[in-house]
Each structure stands twice: as structure tokens, then as C-alpha cells.
Design goal:
215 residues, binds uracil, 6 strands
Length: 215
């Protein structure tokens, strides 16, 4: 009963990664490394945001078919320099595994690459300062599907200010890439109702179908 919803996990035999050539993947990793170095030099938030420890740039397969975009690093992510490793991250990992995938097979990034003090929600100004780096990350990876986790990521990529309740579960598009907005795992942890778990699983199931991951 993952997410508290009875469902049949996707067959592990499903094709989880579209094998790109090693060279292709290595080239994308090189471009991401370059972008990260540029982020350190050029992002205004690196200088303006008080109190962060590590840049949390992104993790996973640079040639992933599926990319998750969250909000901003929390305390655990800031300490380790890796996105989604705290409580929300553990739930995200379960969500990914329920889709028949592993964290290594997807790419995970955030709108902000440095932690806002006290884990507060990024301001629109902060999101617009780090947004170009996320957009470039997406362009390099070239995912077939993006899942946005929570309102700031969806609002940034879809250039709207709509509420999560309206956006979730409905396919949108970002630069020709299908986007599935769903609730942030932190929201799910706070409001761990059967209804919310069902909604998130329903959103992720649409992604599973779209990527042809059902065995
Ligand atoms: N919440 C996010 O949005 N991103 C993280 O990396 C961790 C928690």
C-alpha cells in the first residue's frame, strides 16, 4: 500500500531508461557541469540569499526521459548538496519507485538551487532569477515528460499563477515538453489523506502511461 493507495506497482521489466549512447550522456553531463559552474559565477541568488551552505544543482541521469522539478532545497538538501534527500525526498523516492523507475533513471532539480532561509517558499523574484538556469537544465536534458512538484515549479514553467488544485492532473506543455503538475510531497506529508494520495497516484499514473512504462 504505497502512498496508502492500493495499486499494482509497475512491472520492473518495463523499459525504464531509453538507452542513449554513452557519448550522448557524457556530453549532456559535461554541459550540465558547465551550467553549474556558470550558476556559481552568475546567479544573483548565490550572493543575495543569506545562510545557504551548498548549491543543490540537480541529480540523476542527464539523459533522463522523465524530469521532476521541485521548489527549493530544504535543510537536509542544503547540508548534502543533493535535491530531495529529506522526508519529502524519501516520499518522492517511493513515488518514483512506484512508477517502476529508480532515482538514477530520472533527473531531479529545483526551481531554486540555494536554500531560502527557514525553508520559506521562493518569492516570484527569486524564482525569476534562478528560472533561466532551470530552463537551460531542461534544454540540455531534453526530457520527454516533466513532473512539477508543487505550485512554484508549475507557475514558473507554465508562466501562470494558477492554484495547484486547478493545475494538477491535467497535461500542460513547456516548450513542447508535456508537463504534469502534481502536489509537492511535503504537502502530501502534511495532508496525508487518502484523497490526496489517490490524486497524486492518478497524476503519476498518467505519466507512467505516457512514457509507456506499464509492463
Ligand atoms: N523540497 C523541494 O522542493 N526540493 C527539495 O530538494 C527538497 C524539498
Amino acid at each position: 500500500m504505497l502512498l496508502g493507495v492500493a495499486f499494482v506497482p509497475v512491472s520492473p521489466a518495463a523499459p525504464v531508461v531509453m538507452p542513449g549512447s554513452g557519448d550522448h550522456r557524457a556530453e549532456k553531463q559535461r554541459l550540465l557541469d558547465e551550467l553549474r559552474a556558470r550558476y556559481e559565477r552568475e546567479s544573483p541568488l548565490v550572493r543575495e540569499m543569506p545562510g545557504w551552505t551548498n548549491i543543490v544543482f540537480g541529480v540523476g541521469d542527464p539523459d533522463a526521459r522523465l524530469m521532476f522539478v521541485g521548489e527549493a532545497p530544504g535543510a537536509d538538501e542544503d547540508a548534502q548538496g543533493v535535491p530531495f534527500v529529506g522526508r519529502s525526498g524519501q516520499l518522492l523516492t517511493k513515488m518514483i519507485e512506484a512508477m517502476g523507475l529508480s532515482r538514477d533513471a530520472v533527473y531531479i532539480a529545483n526551481v531554486l538551487k540555494v536554500r531560502p532561509p527557514g525553508n520559506r517558499t521562493p518569492t516570484i523574484d527569486e524564482a525569476s532569477k534562478d528560472g533561466p538556469f532551470l530552463r537551460e537544465q531542461i534544454r540540455i536534458i531534453g526530457p520527454e515528460v516533466i513532473v512539477t512538484l508543487g505550485k512554484p515549479a508549475a507557475n514558473l514553467l507554465l508562466e501562470n499563477s494558477e492554484a495547484m488544485g486547478k493545475m494538477r492532473g491535467h497535461w500542460r506543455e513547456y516548450e513542447g515538453v508535456p508537463v504534469m503538475p502534481t502536489y509537492h510531497p511535503a504537502f502530501l506529508l502534511r495532508s496525508y489523506t487518502e484523497e490526496n494520495r489517490r490524486k497524486v497516484w492518478s497524476d503519476l499514473s498518467q505519466v507512467v502511461d505516457r512514457l509507456g512504462l506499464r509492463g
